[in-house]
Amino acid sequence: MRPTADTGALERLYGADVPPFALLRRQRPGAPGPAPVELLFGAVETAESIEAVESVQTVRSPDGRGAPGAAPGPGLLALLPFRLLAEHGLPCHDDGTPMRVLRVREHHVLPEDAFTGRHAPGRRPLEWQDAGFTTTDAQYEDLVRQFVASDAARGGLNVLLRRDWTARLADFRPAVAVELFRRLLTTESGAYWTFVVHTGGARPVTLVGASPQGHVGVEGGRVVMNPLCGTYRRPPEGTRAGDLLAFLADRKESEELAATVDAELAVLCRLAGPGVRVEGPFLRGMAHLVHTQCRISGPAAAGARETLARALFASTVVGSPYARACRAIHQYEATGRGYYGGLLALIGRDGAGEEELDTAAVIRTLIVDHRGEARLSVGATVGGRSSPEAEAAETRAKARAVLSALSSDAPAAGPARTPRARTDPDLDAAVRDALARRHAALSSFWTRGAAAPPMDAAPVLVLDPGGDAHTELAALLHLVTAVHGAAEVVRHDAPGVAGTLVRHPAPVLLASGPGRPDDPGCARMAGLRRTAAALVRERPPDGRPVAGVGLGFQVLALAALPDARVVPRTGGTGPAREVEVFGRRVTAAFRNAHAIVSGPDGREVIALRERAVRGVQFRPESVLTSDGAGVLRRLLG
Predict the structure, then answer these.
(1) What is the DSSP string of 356-409?
(2) In this predicted model, what pLDDT tens digit does every residue of 510-530 receive, in sequence order?
(3) pTM value?
(4) Cβ partners under 8 Å of residue 328, min gap 6
(5) Cα 291 from Cα 285, distance rounded (Å)
(6) How does DSSP assign 562-618, residue by residue?
(7) What does the alpha-carbon distance between residue 221 and residue 355 come to, in Å, rounded to a whole number?
(8) Mean pLDDT over residues 160-184, rounded?
C-alpha cells in the first residue's frame, strides 16, 4: 500500500454512499512549512480492547530488521473511547462507546490547497439548532468550588472537569464534515492534528477537530510524549505582551504543567529504558489560545501496540496524580465522556519497515452521530487554588475557539491564517527568557536525561504502599536505578513483607502513595505502620539505610519520632517550596494532603535522619524538585 497524490479521490467524499475515511493533517513540532493532508480509506471494525486489535504486519529481513522493500505508511487508525480506562482497573462511567478501528486500504497524500482552494459542492451556511452548554456557567462554577473545597484539592490533586456544548445539525453528511475540515485548515493553526474521521455504516459517527495535544508516539526507536497544560486566551486584537508574560510567570500555571509532566513521566518510565529526558516548556500557539507544553522521550522498550495499550490516556485530559484524578472525574462528572479525552491512534510502518505510532488526544473535537446530534466537550484543569470564574471562562474560550473556526465563512483559498500581533523582537526575546527561566527551574536530572549506572550493586528494595502507587512508582524507580543501580519492588501486602525488608542486604525505600498515615480505620495504613515499626526496631544500623519519601517518610517518622503526629497540610503555598534538607537548600515538590509535625511548637518535619532511618516529606522524582537525584543519593547512601 503506497501513498498516492490522487486529488480525484476527494470526489468520493461527496457521493451518496461514502465509505469510511479519515482526513489528517499532522503537524510535527518544529517541522518546516505546513504538513500535507493524508486521506485514508478503509474498513471499520470494532474491538473489545487494544490487545484484541490485529497487529500491523511488518515484513522482516533475515537480520530481523524491516525489509528494504516494505511499503511505509499507516496501517490502522483506532478511535479509543475514554471508558477503556477500565482496562487499567481505573473508575470511569461506562457509556458503551465502542472502540473503532479503521483498517487502511488506501493512503493518499494531498497538498493543503486541495482543500483550502475549493468549496464543497452544494455548500451551504452551517446552521446550529438548539445550541448551547448543557450546564450554566453558575453550575460549572459551583462544581469547581466543590472540588476546590475538597481534601483532595488541598492535597495537591489537579483534575480536568468537563462541560458539554451540544447542538443539532440538519442534513449532516460526510461532505459537511469535509467542509468543516477545510474551515479548520483555513482558520486555525498550531494544532498537532487537524482531522475528520467518518466511521461509515448504518449508524456512522463523525469526529471533526483540531487537537493541540499529541499523547504518545514511537518514532526512530524512541517513545515520545508531549504533555500540555496551561492556557492563555489570546484577545481578538492579538497577543498582549504584558498578559502573555504574566501568564508565563504565573506560578499556578507553571505548577499545573509540572504536575502534568510528572504524571506523564510516570507513564513514560514504564515504556522506556534509561535515558528519559524532559525538554521545554515550549509555546503552542493557536488562533485563539496559547498553551505551554513539554516534550519527554526515552528509548522505546516495547512495540507500538503494547506502548499504546500501556499509555492510556493523556494526563492532560485527566489530571494528576492520575488514578486519584480518575476517581474525581467519576465523582464530579455525572456521565461518560464518549470519545472525549480518548485518543486517535495511527499505527503504521516507517521507511525501514519498523512499526511507528502517532496519537492525538480527542479534545477540541466536535462529535456528530448519525442523527446529526453534535457534542463538543471542553474542560479546565482545576486545583486547590483555582478560581471558579476563571475556569468557567477558560471552558467558554476553548469552546469558542473551535466553534468560531467551524462556523466562520472561511475564505476559499490560501493557507491557514492565524490572527497574530505584529512581530515584536523585544516580546520574542522576553518570551524566550521566560521559558528559559521555567526550564531552569526543572530538575536537572530529567532535563539532562541521565542514564542508569552499572547494575553491580545489590538492588534497592522498594516498598509499594498500594493505593495509586502502582501508577506513580515508575519515575521513582527510574531515579533509583540512575543513582544507585538495580531496584526491585515488593507490595505492602506481600506475605512476610516486614521480615523481607528487615533482612534485605541493601537499602530499603518506602515509596509515596495516597492516604493519611494515622488513619485508624484503614487496614492498609495499619499494615504500613507495623512494617515501618519493624524496620525502625529491627533493622541493624550497619550502612543499609531505611529510607522513605512522601507517605513512606510519614510512616517511618511516626515510628522513629516519639512525639510525631499528623496534621492536615495548610494550603496557600502550592506544591513547590524551597526548604533545607541535610544542610542544603532545594526546591521541593510536596503532594501529600497531610504533614508530620513534632515538638511542643508543632514544627513541620521536612526531612529525617535518625541513625539508619532517613526520609523526606516531598517527592524527589518530581520535575519541580531541583536536586531530586542528589537528595535520593543521600537517602540511599
Answers:
(1) EEEEEE--SEEEE-TT-EEEEEEEEEE-TT--HHHHHHHHHHHHHHHHHHHHS-
(2) 999 888 899 988 999 999 999
(3) 0.84
(4) 147, 152, 157, 159, 161, 319
(5) 6
(6) TT-EEEEPP-SS-SEEEEEETTEEEEEE---SEEEEETTTTEE--EEEETTEEEESS
(7) 9
(8) 92
